[in-house]
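WARN retry 2 of 3 for item q-0093 after timeout on previous attempt; input resubmitted unchanged.
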Amino acid sequence: MTVVTLGVHIVDVLARPVESIPQGQDTHLLEQIRITAAGAAAGTAVDLAAIGLPVASMGVVGDDELGDFLVMIMRRRGVDISGIVRRPGEQTAASILPIRPDGGRPSFHVPGANLGLATADLDKDRVLGASVLHLGGMDVTWGLHDPAFFALLDEARAGGTVVTMDLLSNMPDLVAGARSFLPHVDHVLPNEEQALMLTGAGDVEEAAGALLATGPSGAVITLGGEGSLVATAGGRIRIPALDVPVVDTTGCGDAYCAGYIAGLLGGRDAVGAARLGTALAARVAGGLGSDAGLAGLDPATL
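OK item q-0093 returned
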């Protein structure tokens, strides 16, 4: 049962702990620096591969050194990267993340080639053959705001593919643009801020109901340290976050999505899938980078 992640691919450069930016030419010594494959598609793909699920990823990266690194590290982690398009003359998306001692993660970001991903870049047969198709970052992949892509999603769902969706940004204009995808997905997994922007609701309970009303059968709103809210036609339930020492919150949402997808593939309902997502997010929060703590983990034990 193959998962296809489709959307945003980013190279993250992370450093911790960063208490301040040095003045002038000063240097601060740190404990750790890492470079990782990240983004709502690439990060989720790497996490799925880490827990043993077959996964292919689709997106666009530049034909540059950052792109070389990204496809190399994804291949090394076990992701099928044959669906990733290299775009000559464009920069691969990248972020620099100075991680605060409390795990907070301000960022410096270049969107890069992600903005140009289009329906024509996709392998239609692979999309239609996926057990789960995960859309990562549809708010910033403007080329997929396309009736032809919506028709492809509907065709995939009619053939038995489960479509899940996560967002990337917290920019109101971008998040609002992702509303057009909601009638074409089965499970949507925004964070609290994104859910409120998507729906215009005053609180997460109202937002969950509004999301379900647009078409998905499951709406999961992640709430950071407060856990998550899972909403289906059967009701609402809050899943508490696990109490773990937080090193870095980068990639926790991607790990949550990977766990949720693994749960669905393992036969769990939305609540059970959300519990597995919570467990994976907690693992990632305990290390640096979007894939921290997941290598060799058996989701059946969680």
